[in-house]
Amino acid sequence: MNINKQIKAREVLVISGEKKLGIMPTYTAIDFADRAGLDLVEVSPNAKPPVCKIMDYGKFLYEQKKKQVKTLQKVTKEMKITPNTSEHDLGWMAKQIRGFLDSKYSVIIKVVMRGRQNVHPDICFSQINKLCENIGTFKVEKESKQEGKIVSRTIYDN
What we know:
Blueprint (H helix, E strand, L loop, with lengths): L10 E6 L2 E7 H11 L2 E6 L6 E5 L1 H16 L3 E6 L5 H16 L3 E7 L8 H15 L3 E9 L2 E7 L2
Parallel strand pairs: 1-4, 5-6
Antiparallel strand pairs: 1-2, 3-4, 6-8, 7-8
Helix pairs in contact: 3-4
């Protein structure tokens, strides 16, 4: 984007906030923006005449960068089950997880063991495998692992 003195056009259509100020010579528009303590930014250079907006260019760049970072952040959902969770509940959870994956979330599946269940972590791994079979196609971000009383796997979809 061209700002202030970088604008090459002789005349520009000037917009300030939501108001059109009209077509004026570039030097007049730059002077108008300077008096307001803002910048003249060329928004649409290919239009006849080019469209320029009076705004705080630094603030504009900051907001654009902030939006870009927000879109790059990955949101994670979490589903907790137990080794005794029934087949019906696993089917329902698989449907919920599929919805999360379709919405571009990554999902952490956790199987929480209580009491004597700690002796049989293999049941927890089989529960995660059953649930993952019901989900369908996905990519594994972190393979199944046991951390104390919790067995977890992180998955995502494209």
